[in-house]
């Protein structure tokens, strides 16, 4: 791919990776930027998905580590969710090769618009009201259902996965917002890494590009996670709703218009 030898393209990927990593660490949705950028390079769609999983794994690992260091995520409470997410991501990564994705492209915008509307009209959807940090392991059944569903979705498609994790975690477990963000980043790292292994095995990863963009996403994720922790709810809630609406608009434009 001679196009990639041009410094201007590498610089553009670096900037997009930095911004995408920042967004992913706070609310999720960095793929809204990174996937179109990779498609613009002329890469096949499945290779774009695999390469994006490589880059996103760097960003989500840094964000998860940052939340963990600030005691906003306790891995021992969530090992059932880890296992379920891993299994779901394996299923989703293989399903994307077997299932006609046209129906998903039509439905996804509606689901994500629904999240945005729910977040706008429900004051408790993205908030710390009546929430507390977990002091024991949440119910295993809920972890399995959530992890399987969202892990499969992330392996299969992925747009808006951070928003899905954040909203469902707050609703299911009554977690404070930053704890929901920490859980979301840890689980998206799990599904990203799992899907990356599958796409890599299938030969659908452009490693050089993914590593370059991934390092930039890692830096962006570190900055984003630190900003979320420092500024909290007033910073996260409006950005969350904005990004979710942008994801929905992007998907609706692609699917319907």
TrEMBL record:
Keywords: Cell membrane, Membrane, Transmembrane, Transmembrane helix, Transport. Its main location: membrane. The keyword Membrane applies. The chain crosses the membrane at residues 12-41, 77-97, 103-121, 183-203, 209-229, 236-256. Signal peptide: none annotated. It is found in: Cell membrane. It is a multi-pass membrane protein. InterPro entries: TM_pro_TauE-like, TSUP. The keyword DNA-binding does not apply. Belongs to the 4-toluene sulfonate uptake permease (TSUP) (TC 2.A.102) family. This is Probable membrane transporter protein. It comes from Shewanella glacialipiscicola.
